Structures are given as C-alpha cells and as structure tokens.
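Q: I'm writing a short explainer about Acyl-CoA dehydrogenase family protein for a general audience and would like to include a description of its predicted shape. Could you first generate the structure from this sequence?
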Amino acid sequence: MDTDFTAEQDEIRRTLRELLLRRCGPAQVRAAADTPAGYDPALWTALAEQLGLPGLALPEAYGGAGGSVTDLALACEETGRSLAPSPLLATAGLAAPLLLSLGTARQRTGVLPRIASGALTAALAVPGPSLSTALALTGDNGGAWAGGGRAGGVQARRTDSGWRLYGQVEQVLDGHSAELLLVAAHAGGFARSRTLLFLVPGDAEGLVRVRRTALDATRPQARLQLRDVAAELLGDEDADVLGALAGLGDTVAVLLACEAVGAAGQVLGRTVEYVRQREQFGRAIGSFQAVKHRLADVYVQVQAARSAAYYGAWASVNGERVGGLALAQALEALRCAAAEGIQLHGGIGFTWEHEAHLYFKRASGDELLFGPAHRLRAHAADAAQLFAGREVRM
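A: Of course. Here's the predicted structure. Afterward I'll give you a sentence or two in plain language.
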C-alpha cells in the first residue's frame, strides 16, 4: 500500500480547504442549510468550476478528471471538516457511479458530462427506512426494501407509452432539490418481481417532493411521492441492479468515513484550542491532567479512524471491500470527538447555537442513515464468515 498522496491530490486538498475556510464558517453553514435548497448554489458552482469536484472520479470521456475513489474521498474529508452542505455525496457519490455502471451509452453521454460540470445534480431514491439496507452495508440487499412485488415501496408498470412509477420514498438525500432522480422500483409483479432503476426528471408530472425535517440539517432529506410518473429505465431489464448497489455501498462507506474523519479532526482541533484559552482556578483547563487524558484518547481514536478511512479508499480501488469497517470506526470517532467537545466547552457547549452540536448531529444522523456502527461490523463479520461454525453465546 502506497501511503503517499500525489502532488495533484495535495493541491486539491489545499485549494479546497482554503476555499471552504473562506466560504463555510459555522454561521455560513447554518444559513445555507436553512435555505430551501439546503445548500449554497454559488458555493456549489465554485466547487464544480474551480475544482471539478463532481467529476473527480468520472472518466475523461464524460468530462471528468479521470480520478479514482481516493481522489473523491480526500475531497470529502475536506468538505466534512467544515460540514459544507452540498449535493456532492448525492450526486457524485451515489447517482453518478450507478449511471456509469448501468446506463446505456446514450444515457451516459447525455447525463454524465452535465454532472461532471456541476450543471446537473442528481439523487438516488431507494424505498425503505435507510440507505444502508439497499447499499448492503448492514445486511444483504435482497430487494424486499423496494416493495417486493407487494403493496408499499415503489412499483413500476410497463405501458404502451413506457414505464410508470407509483409509490413513496421517505429518505432521499437532496431529493427535494436534485434535478434528476434515480428511483429504485420493483417490476414484474409478485411472481417475477425484480428491482430496476429508473430516471425521473425533478420536474416530472405527478412527482411531489417535500423536504423533511432532519436531525442533521446539513444533510437534507426529502420525501418523494410518485403518482403515475413517467420514467425512463436505466440501462436494460437484465441489469444487475442489486449487485451494482451492493458494490456502490462500499464506495459510499469510504466517502462517508473520510467525511467523518475530517469532521472529527476539526471538532477535536477546535476543542483543543478552546481548552488552551479557558481558565479555571487561575490556569488553562487544558493543563489539567484529566482533560489531557480525555483529549489524548480522542486523538488516538481519530488517527486510527483516519488510517482506516485511507486504507478503505486504497482497498476500494484495488478490489477489496472494507468500507463498512472504516465507516464504523469513523462514525464512532466523530461521535466521541463531538461529545467531548460539547463537554469540555462547558456551559456554552450545551447550547444548540454552538457549532459542536453540528458535528454531533452529523455523527448521529449518519449512524441513523448508514449504520449503526455495531451493525456495520456485524455484517462485515458475516460476509467474512468470521464466526462460521462457531457457537456464539450471549
């Protein structure tokens, strides 16, 4: 494993960090999250035009930079550091890889260059209580989450004029603002049910989108209602949608792990800075041994999570799947760092207005959507048959 970053990767990280320091302070993050879109369109344009973030991991043939998952993961570490609200994860992390792997030549050439340029945002809509099921992060994605041919979920019906979708999706990242939706639905009825993906324009007739109140306002979610909505099949009917989603899950886990590591490192740094300044009994509280020990424990946890996230990115490029384990460790590190930050900031740390709560909500919100950590680890153990043939006593 080569642990050195390339000059291009270092330059992207440096430039992105400088841009976000200017444009994504705590007050700016809150203001952007409270807008109807849930992010600052001007900042998204800058990220796309100046740094090409949406196309970092897309081939040059489609207007991308031809980079790898590692490039996008390092960018996510920087956006996670500032909790920058943007459609980067939904567009470049979830939707674009599926378009690249499953789309027809016409669909790829028609959509991916617009995504790479930042002109088009996209979102993945999968029915069910969380994305972790569909992405096979916490269990096998057998397809029942999309409706299973029974009532509920999203159903697809072929007509003389094309495909029509019916149903509802509860948790769609950036689904209220995305200009293109990738909707997972069941087709073929109960006897021959199969999961397919469909392209639905954001302004399609019969589509109702409502932004939901989420625990983490920097990660906006939407409820979608599809009432006889015309849709275009992504790829063909023989496409292995479940396999593509399972493969995507590891990549998304790596991106989320790097986001969480960036956030954990930032909140730890802010806490260390604060305890150096706050005085009690005539001395800085950072000089107290108990405080030093607590922060040292957090530091070790954050550094271990960073190593796991970087290894996960490297492994993903080299055909190994350890993203779920990296994500579990990163989420725990972020939750621990944010909780200690709240505690060590004292009375002001317990007010909702303090920025430490933004990081704690990110950790809690991501665990609800993609975890929790113990289920991520349990599924990884099952996949590796770690306890095969052994009797586990509780």
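A: For your explainer, you could say: The chain has a mean pLDDT of 91.
Q: Perfect, that's easy to follow.
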